[in-house]
């Protein structure tokens, strides 16, 4: 299979984000057609279902199905939210979509609003990318001025207001219900479910939340037809997906590939492993997905089902590549620190457990590991897994489980020898950090 | 109804129930911390995880809705494993030093750790330390013990009405705190101590003074406001150590106010009068009961002999029991006098000749939730005067759409959404009620009654505020109109009563209309009517007894300078009297100044007795502690005094026998708020035309100064609610006087010829224009004289 860029197509030029550029690429044609033909919402949702589009934020929930959950006859406002709070280590696709192709997201959201009868929408943008928040505001202004957004869109009786909302950098606000709380001006903490956002979302009104890339895919699906989109990928894994590849590769960056493309092809596109070293492991779907060792990932295709079968998750498509110079204990320590730091503190297993995990891994990494620590890690991770309000608990537990499962010997070595299996010099060379010999 | 099987037991529960609700029906206990039946669901502690058929992971029982045919296991291997996992997490950072924790022995975490905790900890890292907070004089913080269940946060927000607490910071560093450097000032704050499942929030006055298992639990009733909250008084060696709520779903649910909870400290106050005392050569000498009672009886007999029975007056506290009030009025009447009253802060008694029965709330407290959709509150400091009643109204306003309107000179925040409010000076209240009645007649299409039709104001009086109140009332079906303490203490109280009755009639469904009610000031504000502790037709009331001084007085539980409508006049009347016999719990300086005989009176914890609360619920209680020294129950003292005076009808053997005389038969039939026509008046205390520099007084009775017990409770006296009185004026009023906020000014009563008091000026936009709000019942402001009337403000 080969790359067939949709969202990222034509974005190589100098100024690609303006309305005129997007229109020149065929943008807003889908919306204009819908408004002109008064396409019934059911037809749009049916098209999405046919496309096999699955949520690009990480969970991979079928988008068409999600849209069909919104109550039809609801008196009062219904809301639409776009989750651009991209905070998972390794993920950097949404900010490039917003940076270079913001109108694809806007068009996708307007079509979503049409299909679900939403009157208001918010795009919740990650706090640390303020210039992109500004660019999105500019895009909104362009769309409003062109009559594509606001009251009586394209002269029809359909109205939809869309606002940009920026967060303040808390990872947890990327969890969809914490995002809703944050939009309401409250502390970003997840809500327990049920009730689900489709019945009780922003200000208690029915709300649908989708990822930036999901919305950006919508105009293309309606442009080319659901069937054609599906056929780009494979059954149940339709369309293209942007992969953010980072780590020990020569050309890290965003690559839009058809779902089902072999991992090896992505690695090749990214220029292969830096310094010609050997691949050791890959975290295939953002830092929360379980790590896969080289031999397993090299046999995988990049799609939801294949990665899941291999014991991990496609997640948000953030592929973190680690070569043989990587100490897996140190890598896990870094990840565990992140989840410990970003736990919201609301529910017990995550609040107390993430710190426990981090401290034990930290201890092992620093030569203070004890016999039994690997079992302790497994047990604590198991006690967090599936017991928390939101998925952050799972996100903290899964890397631990994955690392310990595939690289248990490195942990054992650390505990027994109070030092790394990968010699320090190799690690330093791999990370290209100069360490003074006197250190 | 949905059918659910929990641990093999099939139960049927209504739709919308959670697994936790169903477990309660099935009699299955599911361990929990953050869940509380009166608070919103947090689902954050995860202790209640249970196994549910077809669910891939354990689900929290508190937040999982029941579906038909659901099967739940709370004790299965999967469920218990999840519960044990959560317990381990809760304990890793919790200090394991129960023996030095005040919560030890009554700690949910300690109890559940026995069932779900490990024998030893697997956590070998450093434990978390959280700095303690200063939450004020009532609630102690031991923040390291906190398990972040957020019950306290949800309580302050949902029940207290103000988000005084929150969970700051993130993850492991999350901690419960108030807004930066603020204390918790809610009048319901003590309830968070009960709610805290661990030792993170404990009672500051109580902590470390006894262990839970050493305490006896005895039932009692609050002696403070007219709500009559049910209490559990805990004693050790017959000394009161702590007061907790006794859950009564029809009344206080599981809440009590801070004064209910912490006033017990006064019981061990150094000012307690523990021995009969008599004044001899201007010194106080302890004497035996025999000698004291003989002297008291002699005093009363002599004065009556010399000056006639009408020279005797009796003032009783409305916090006295039904039994005490009954025997006192019997004694006074037995001696031939009709001068008795317990409505000490009241000014206008014209309603006495016109009322059909004892004034009361006009409804059951429990009916507020389901049987009220519109409420008008007239002249009340509702939140501080009746904290638990305010909580009921708040709950209904938030959850059941109750619309609340208010009329009065103070727009103090009750933490209740207010639909419409008329902020008017005391002198304008009658006219405002008349205007509301007029607007309501227009809205509802009902005709105003003939006698009042002639007294309606002209159209100009129908301001937007008045119309908004009328619109709200007219749009409801189940309406109540409540008169607050300020309305009852008002110089035109009878007219306010009359117009409130008219508004209630015009509002609500049908010819009968809405319900009229009185919030009530004291524990026995209703009971005093039933006990007939009121003047007879020729008798003097509480106001005339102090303005037309008597030769002898009997005081029952009264601190005359602070409890009367005019402390200055009351003290003057008592000072000129030949004889004053006082039954008192505390030997206050004022009593020592004016009394001749001091008889130690048992407070509510040391006597049996009965209070009738605002809704007409008679609640009897027994003594829960041993009285110190020579203190005796008031009913026994009065009964013996009756015998010594040779009066008939003083043969009762028990307080129950006394109570039976008052409340025997259907006493509730005597509750009636109907009033006959009151002729209009312009009382002297309000000038017809405003005089510059002269402001109308708005006197609140601060919550922790309302009765002798709270005044002597040290912790309550350190709260924000007990701060020294200030002079509160609106910005407009302040500007019109050319004064500045923060300035200290001299304030004088327009009538009192005294030097006045010095008070700090505070801008308060909740005070009506032309009015000055100054707290009463406080030693600093006694010199201002009457609660109602005018004040002169002068620059020093």
Q: In terms of topology, how is this protein built?
A:
The complex is a heterodimer of chains A (439) and B (796).
Chain A: H1 19-24, H2 29-37, H3 41-51, H4 63-68, E1 79-84, H5 93-100, H6 102-116, E2 120-125, H7 130-145, E3 161-166, H8 176-183, E4 207-211, H9 212-224, H10 226-232, E5 240-247, E6 253-258, E7 261-262, H11 263-269, E8 279-283, E9 292-293, H12 294-297, E10 301-302, H13 304-309, E11 318-323, H14 328-342, H15 348-365, H16 373-384, H17 392-417, H18 424-431
Parallel strand pairs in A: 1-2, 1-4, 2-3, 5-11
Antiparallel strand pairs in A: 5-6, 7-10, 8-9, 8-11
Helix pairs in contact in A: 3-6, 3-10, 5-6, 6-9, 9-10, 14-15, 14-17, 15-16, 15-17, 16-17
Chain B: E1 2-6, E2 9-13, H1 19-26, E3 49-52, E4 59-60, E5 70-73, H2 77-92, H3 108-116, E6 139-141, H4 151-159, E7 165-168, E8 175-178, H5 191-195, E9 201-203, E10 216-221, E11 230-236, E12 239-245, H6 258-262, E13 277-280, E14 283-286, H7 289-307, E15 312-316, H8 322-334, E16 340-341, H9 367-370, E17 374-378, H10 382-385, H11 387-399, E18 403-408, E19 418-423, H12 429-444, H13 450-453, H14 464-474, E20 479-483, H15 485-488, H16 493-506, E21 515-518, H17 527-530, H18 542-547, E22 552-556, H19 560-563, H20 567-576, E23 579-584, H21 589-594, E24 597-600, E25 609-612, E26 618-621, H22 634-644, H23 655-663, E27 694-698, H24 708-711, H25 714-717, E28 727-729, H26 731-737, E29 744-749, E30 757-763, E31 771-773, E32 790-795
Parallel strand pairs in B: 1-5, 15-16, 15-22, 17-18, 17-20, 18-19, 20-21, 22-23, 23-24, 27-31, 28-30
Antiparallel strand pairs in B: 1-2, 3-4, 3-5, 6-9, 7-8, 10-11, 11-12, 13-14, 13-24, 25-26, 27-32, 29-30, 29-32
Helix pairs in contact in B: 2-3, 7-22, 8-22, 8-23, 12-14, 12-16
């Amino acid at each position: 299979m080969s790359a067939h860029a949709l969202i990222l197509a034509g974005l190589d030029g100098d100024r690609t984000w303006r309305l005129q550029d997007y229109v020149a690429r065929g943008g807003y044609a889908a919306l204009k057609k819908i408004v002109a033909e008064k396409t019934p919402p059911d037809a749009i949702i049916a098209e999405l279902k046919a496309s096999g589009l699955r949520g690009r934020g990480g969970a991979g929930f079928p988008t068409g199905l999600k849209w069909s959950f919104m109550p039809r006859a609801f008196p009062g406002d219904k809301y639409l939210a776009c989750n651009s709070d991209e905070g998972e280590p390794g993920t950097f696709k949404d900010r490039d979509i917003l940076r270079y192709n913001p109108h694809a997201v806007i068009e996708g959201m307007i079509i979503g609003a049409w299909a679900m009868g939403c009157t208001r929408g918010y795009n919740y943008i990650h706090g640390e990318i303020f210039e992109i928040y500004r660019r999105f505001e500019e895009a909104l202004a362009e769309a409003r001025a062109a009559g594509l957004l606001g009251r009586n869109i394209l002269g029809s009786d359909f109205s939809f207001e869309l606002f940009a909302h920026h967060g303040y950098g808390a990872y947890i606000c990327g969890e969809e219900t914490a995002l809703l709380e944050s939009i309401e001006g409250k502390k970003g903490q997840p809500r327990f479910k049920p009730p689900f956002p489709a019945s009780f979302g922003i200000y208690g009104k029915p709300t649908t939340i989708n990822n930036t890339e999901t919305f950006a895919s919508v105009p293309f699906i309606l442009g080319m037809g659901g069937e054609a989109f599906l056929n780009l990928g494979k059954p149940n894994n339709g369309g293209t997906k942007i992969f953010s590849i980072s780590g020990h590769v020569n050309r890290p960056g965003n690559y839009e590939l058809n779902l089902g493309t072999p991992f090896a092809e992505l690695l090749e596109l990214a220029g292969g492993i830096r310094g010609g070293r050997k691949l050791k492991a890959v975290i295939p779907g953002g830092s929360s997905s379980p790590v896969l060792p080289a031999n397993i990932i090299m046999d995988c295709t990049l799609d939801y089902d294949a990665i899941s079968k291999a014991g991990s998750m496609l997640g948000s498509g953030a592929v973190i590549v680690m070569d043989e110079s990587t100490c897996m204990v140190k890598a896990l320590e870094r990840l565990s620190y992140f989840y410990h730091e970003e736990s919201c503190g609301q529910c017990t297993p995550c609040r107390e457990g993430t710190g426990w995990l981090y401290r034990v891994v930290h201890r092992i990494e620093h030569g203070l590991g004890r016999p039994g620590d690997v079992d302790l890690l497994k047990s604590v991770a198991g006690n967090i897994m599936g017991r928390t309000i939101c998925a952050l608990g799972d996100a903290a537990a899964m890397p631990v489980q994955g690392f310990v499962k595939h690289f248990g010997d490195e942990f054992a070595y650390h505990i027994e020898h109070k030092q790394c299996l990968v010699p320090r010099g190799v690690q330093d060379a791999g990370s290209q950090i100069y360490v003074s010999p006197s250190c | 109804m949905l059918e659910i099987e929990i641990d093999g037991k099939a139960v049927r529960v209504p739709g919308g129930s959670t697994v936790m609700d169903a477990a309660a029906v099935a009699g299955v206990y599911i361990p929990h911390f953050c869940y509380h039946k009166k608070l919103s669901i947090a689902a954050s502690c995860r202790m209640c995880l249970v196994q549910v058929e077809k669910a891939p992971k354990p689900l929290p029982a508190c937040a999982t809705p029941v579906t038909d045919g659901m099967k739940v296991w709370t004790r299965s291997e999967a469920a218990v494993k999840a519960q044990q996992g959560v317990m381990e997490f809760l304990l890793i950072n919790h200090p394991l030093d129960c023996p030095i924790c005040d919560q030890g022995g009554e700690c949910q975490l300690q109890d559940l750790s026995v069932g779900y905790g490990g024998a030893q900890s697997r956590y070998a890292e450093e434990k978390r330390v959280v700095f303690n907070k200063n939450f004020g004089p009532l609630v102690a913080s031991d923040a390291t013990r906190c398990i972040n269940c957020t019950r306290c946060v949800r309580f302050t927000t949902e029940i207290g009405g103000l988000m005084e607490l929150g969970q700051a910071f993130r993850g492991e560093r999350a901690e419960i705190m108030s807004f930066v450097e603020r204390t918790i000032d809610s009048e319901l704050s003590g309830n968070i101590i009960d709610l805290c499942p661990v030792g993170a929030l404990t009672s500051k006055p109580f902590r470390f003074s006894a262990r839970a298992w050493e305490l006896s639990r005895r039932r009692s009733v609050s002696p403070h406001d007219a709500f009559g909250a049910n209490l559990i008084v805990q004693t050790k060696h017959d000394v009161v150590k702590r007061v907790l709520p006794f859950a009564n779903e029809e009344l206080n649910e599981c809440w009590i106010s801070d004064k209910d909870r912490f006033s017990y400290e006064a019981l061990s106050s150094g000012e307690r009068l523990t021995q009969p005392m008599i004044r001899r050569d201007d010194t106080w000498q302890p004497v035996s009961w025999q000698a004291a009672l003989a002297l008291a009886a002699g005093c009363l007999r002599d004065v009556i002999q010399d000056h006639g029975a009408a020279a005797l007056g009796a003032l009783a506290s409305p916090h006295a029991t039904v039994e005490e009030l009954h025997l006192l009025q019997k004694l006074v009447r037995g001696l031939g006098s009709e001068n008795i009253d317990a409505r000490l802060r009241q000014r206008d008694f014209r309603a006495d000749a016109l009322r059909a029965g004892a004034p009361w709330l006009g409804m059951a407290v429990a009916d507020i939730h389901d049987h009220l959709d519109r409420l008008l509150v007239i002249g009340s400091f509702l939140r501080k005067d009746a904290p638990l009643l305010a909580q009921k109204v708040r709950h209904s306003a938030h959850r059941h759409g109750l619309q609340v309107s208010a009329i009065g000179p103070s727009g103090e925040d009750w933490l209740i959404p207010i639909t419409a409010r008329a902020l008017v000076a005391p002198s304008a209240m009658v006219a405002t009620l008349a205007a509301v009645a007029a607007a309501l007649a227009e809205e509802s299409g009902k005709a105003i009654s003939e006698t009042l039709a002639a007294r309606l104001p002209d159209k100009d009086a129908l301001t937007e505020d008045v119309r908004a109140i009328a619109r709200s009332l007219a749009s409801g079906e189940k309406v109540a109109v409540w008169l607050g303490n300020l309305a009852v203490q008002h110089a035109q109280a009878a007219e306010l009563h009359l117009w409130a009755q008219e508004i209630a009639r015009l509002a609500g469904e049908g010819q009968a209309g809405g319900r009229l009610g009185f919030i009530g000031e004291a524990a026995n504000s209703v009971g005093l009517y039933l006990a007939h502790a009121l003047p007879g037709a020729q008798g003097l009331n509480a106001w005339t007894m102090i303005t037309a001084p008597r030769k002898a007085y009997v005081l029952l539980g009264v601190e005359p300078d602070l409890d009367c409508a005019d402390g200055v006049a009351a003290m003057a009347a008592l000072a000129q009297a030949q004889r004053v016999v006082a039954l008192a719990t505390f030997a206050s300086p004022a009593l020592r100044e004016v009394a001749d005989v001091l008889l130690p009176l048992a407070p509510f914890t040391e006597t049996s007795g009965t209070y009738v609360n605002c809704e007409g619920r008679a609640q009897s209680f027994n003594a829960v502690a041993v009285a110190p020294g020579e203190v005796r129950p008031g009913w026994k003292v009065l009964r013996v005094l009756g015998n010594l005076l040779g009066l008939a009808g003083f043969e009762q053997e028990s307080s129950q026998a006394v109570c039976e005389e008052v409340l025997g038969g259907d006493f509730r039939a005597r509750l009636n708020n109907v009033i006959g026509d009151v002729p209009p008046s312009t009382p002297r205390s309000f000038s017809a035309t405003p005089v510059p520099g002269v402001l109308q007084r708005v006197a609140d009775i601060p919550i922790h100064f309302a009765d002798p017990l709270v005044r002597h409770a040290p912790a309550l006296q350190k709260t924000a609610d007990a701060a020294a009185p200030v002079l509160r004026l609106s910005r407009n009023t302040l500007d019109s006087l050319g004064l500045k906020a923060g300035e200290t000014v001299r304030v004088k009563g327009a009538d009192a010829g005294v030097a006045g008091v010095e008070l700090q000026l505070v801008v308060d936009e909740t005070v009506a224009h032309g009015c000055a709000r100054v707290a009463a019942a406080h030693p600093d402001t006694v010199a201002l004289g009457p609660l109602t009337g005018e004040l002169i403000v002068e620059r020093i």
